[in-house]
Structure prediction request, 611 residues.
Amino acid sequence: MELYLLCLALFSIGLYGVVRKRNIIKIIIGLSIMEYAVNLFLVLIGYRMHGRAPILAKDQQILNMVDPLAQAMVLTTIVIGLAAIMLIVSIAVRVYEKYGTFDITKIRKLKG
Amino acid sequence: MPLSPLLFIIIPLAAAFLVVLLGRGRELLGYIFSCCSAFILLFASVSALVFVHRLPSHIFIYNIGGWVMPFGIGLVFDAFSSLMLVVVNLISFMAAVYSLRYISRYTDTWKFYSLFMLMIAGLNGVVASGDIFNMYVFLEIASISAYALVAFGTEAQDLEAAFKYAIMGAVASLFILLGIALLYSYASTLNMADLALVLAEKPHGFLVSFITALFLVGFGLKAAMVPFHAWLPDAHPSAPAPISAMLSAVVIKTLGVYALARVVFNILGMPSKALYVLMILGAVSMIAGAALAVNQRDIKRMLAYSSISQVGYILLALGIGTPLAIIGALFHLINHAVGKSLLFLNSGAVDHAAGTRDMEKLGGLNKRMPVTAGTSLIGSLSISGIPPFAGFWSKFLIIVAAAQSGHLILAFIAVIVSVITLVYYLKFQNKVFFSELLQGLEKVKEVSLSMNIVVISLAAISIVAGLMLLPSLRPLLERAADVLAMGANYKDLVMGGLR
Prediction:
C-alpha cells in the first residue's frame, strides 16, 4: 500500500512540475516524472511477492508468478512515452530557436 | 463483413509508411496515396455501417489473430462505433482531397501526408478497438501525430501552440493511463465488455469513483471541456487548414467525446455523479466558448472557440443521459463535424486567397469568392441552428430532451447560447463576405476546383443530414444511441455478438 501511495506522490510531484514550473525543460522533466510514476505503478500492480516470470517449461512448476500482462503494458507505454517526449523536446528546441528563451511567460506570441 | 475490419488500421498505417518510403521529393505521390487510402476507408466504413445494421444483433466482433475476445484483442463494430467510423473517414477523405493546393505552400509535404495517415490510423483504432489499453495506444498514435501536425508550419506561433497542446495532451494521456492501470488492478481485465461484467459484480467503492474522475479529467482535456480547454484556441488555428478541420471535427470528438462516452456509459455503467459532472461542465463549456468567441478577430480562433461551445452541447446532452438526449448528442456530433470542417476549410481558403485571417482586414469577399462565401453561409447557419439546416434539428433535439428531463434552466441556456452563436457567425459573415470590398482585396480569386468541390459536398451534406431523422434512416442514430443508453448492459451485447 505504501508503495502505491509513493507512486501517487511521484505522480503528484510530476504534475506539480508541469503546472507550476516556468522553464520548458523543467516542464518536460515533470512530464517524464509523471510517466515514470505511472509505469512504476503498472509494474507494481503486476508484481507478486517472490513471484517469478511465468515461462512454461518442462519439469518446472511455477506456483507464484508475476503478471506478465502488466509488464507488456509497461513496455508499450515506455515506447509511447519515448515518442511523445522526443517530439516535445524537439518542439522545445525549435521554440528556443525562435524565441531565444525557455521561460514560458516570455513565449507569448499567441493572444488569449 | 465485406472487407476485413483490420483494413481500417492497416490501410492508413501502410499508406503512412509508403509515403515516407517513396514520397520524398514527389509531392503528388503522397497526395494520391492519402486520397486513395482515405477513399477506400470511406467506402469500407460505409459498407461496415450497412453490414452492421443488417445483422440481427447489430454487432460484429473481429478477434485479432483468432484469439477469442476476453483473452485476445477484438475490434468491436456496433451501431455507435460504425457510425463514428463513417464520420471520421468522411471528414478525413474531404480533408485529404482538400490538401493538394493548400499544403503546397509548405516544404516537405510528404511528411504532412504521412502524419495525416498516421492520425487516421489512430482515430480508426480508437473507434474500433474493444480493448481499453489498445484504445489508449491508438489514442496516443493519433495524439502524437496531431501534435506534430499542429507544429507543421514551424513558425513561432505554430511551435508555441504545438508545445502547449503536446504538454496538455501528454498530461491527459497519463491521467487516462493511470485510470486504466487502476481499473486493471481492480478488475484484472482490459477488455471493455469484460470490465463492465466485472465492475457490475463488484461493489463500487471509492476506487471506482476515483477512476471515473481520472477518466473525466483525461478525456475532458482531450475533448477541451471548459476548465481544460486552454490548448484548443491556440492549437486549432495554428495548424494547416485541413488539419484544423480534422482536429475540430474529428479528433476532439473521437479522442474526447467518443472515448469518454464509451468508458463512462459502457464500462462504468453511467454513474449518476459522472453524468452530472458532464452535464454541468457541458453547460459551462457552451457558455464560455460562445462568450469568448464573440470578440475574436481571427476567423480560425473564433471557429475554435465555437468548437468548445458546440462540444459543450454534445457533453450536456450526454450528461442528461436520456435516449432522446443521446440521439441529439450523436446527431449534433455528426452535424458539427460536417459544419465545422466546412468552415475551417473555408477559413483556409480565405487565408489562401486573401493572405490574412483577420476579420478586420477582410470584407466583401462574396463577389470575389462566391463558392466559399455561399458554403460558409450554409455552414454558419447550420452550426448556429437555423431551421432547414441539419444543425437545427440536433440542437432542437437536445433542447427538447433537456426540457423533458426537467432541466429547464439548461434548456434555456442552450437556447440563449444558440442565439449568441448566431450572433458571432453573422458577424463573421458580415465582416468577411458581405461588407464593402476592402482595398487590396480586388485581385482575390476563388480557390482551386478541388477545394471548391470539397466544400460544396460538405455543404450539401450539412443540408441533407437533417434527413437522418426520417423514419427510414432514424435507426442509424437510434441504434447507436441505444448502445450508449444500455450502459453496462453493453457486456451482454458483446457477449451475444461473440457467439
About this structure: The mean pLDDT of chain A is 88.
